[in-house]
Amino acid sequence: MLRGMYLTRNGNLQRRHTMKEAKDMKNKLGIFRRRNESPGAQPGGKADKMVKSFKPTSEEALKWGESLEKLLLHKYGLAVFQAFLRTEFSEENLEFWLACEDFKKVKSQSKMTAKAKKIFAEYIAIQACKEVNLDSYTREHTKDNLQSVTRGCFDLAQKRIFGLMEKDSYPRFLRSDLYLDLINQKKMSPPL
């Protein structure tokens, strides 16, 4: 749990940024770029079509700058944003948001209850392994909602975390090399 963390002089627990993790994620995303840009590649195979549809054009990537919602709706955009959050060691926010989205799709009440308890324990409980930054009111409100689990029991917490990402991480993502490389990809491509 404390891997990659250390205590500062004033006793606060801080996350240590490791370039290796950031580089690993960039390399993983580079697989999509290499598959899509390999010279002489003939589209036609199912895997090629999937990769081609997965990687955005610079115009599609530009649309991500309009809103966080548009970014999260695109599979590649979601993957790139998640990679960016890993470099900042704040991926738990997006993981929580995605867990809430998955939770809303659960149909069985017993499965919903079990999943709700797991989400709370993993992301919301004090000292949770992937604790997200919530105010005490939201934390208590969500805890109270677990007494009678519904699809909307995480709505307030999810809204707060979305707002946090939208105001904090998302603007930094739009200034990141990961995003800027995607929107400038035409300029870097050699002429045909």
Automatic annotation (TrEMBL):
Tell me which residues make up the RGS domain: 67-183
Which residue windows are transmembrane per the record?
A: none
Answer yes or no on keyword Ubl conjugation.
Answer: yes
Name the Gene3D superfamilies on file: 1.10.196.10, Regulator of G-protein Signalling 4, domain 2
Quote the cellular component terms of the Gene Ontology held in the record: cytoplasm; nucleus; plasma membrane
Which SUPFAM superfamilies does this one have? Answer: Regulator of G-protein signaling, RGS (SSF48097)
Signal peptide span: none
**Keyword Secreted (UniProt):** no
**What compartments host this protein?**
Nucleus
Q: Name the major location.
A: nucleus
Q: Which InterPro entries match?
A: RGS (IPR016137), RGS_RGS3 (IPR034951), RGS_sf (IPR036305), RGS_subdom1/3 (IPR024066), RGS_subdomain_2 (IPR044926)
- One of the protein's GO biological processes: negative regulation of signal transduction
Q: Which UniProt keywords apply?
A: Methylation, Nucleus, Phosphoprotein, Signal transduction inhibitor, Ubl conjugation
Described purpose of this protein according to its UniProt entry: Down-regulates signaling from heterotrimeric G-proteins by increasing the GTPase activity of the alpha subunits, thereby driving them into their inactive GDP-bound form. Down-regulates G-protein-mediated release of inositol phosphates and activation of MAP kinases.
Kindly provide the name given to this protein in its UniProt entry: Regulator of G-protein signaling 3
- What species is given as this protein's source? Lynx pardinus (Iberian lynx)
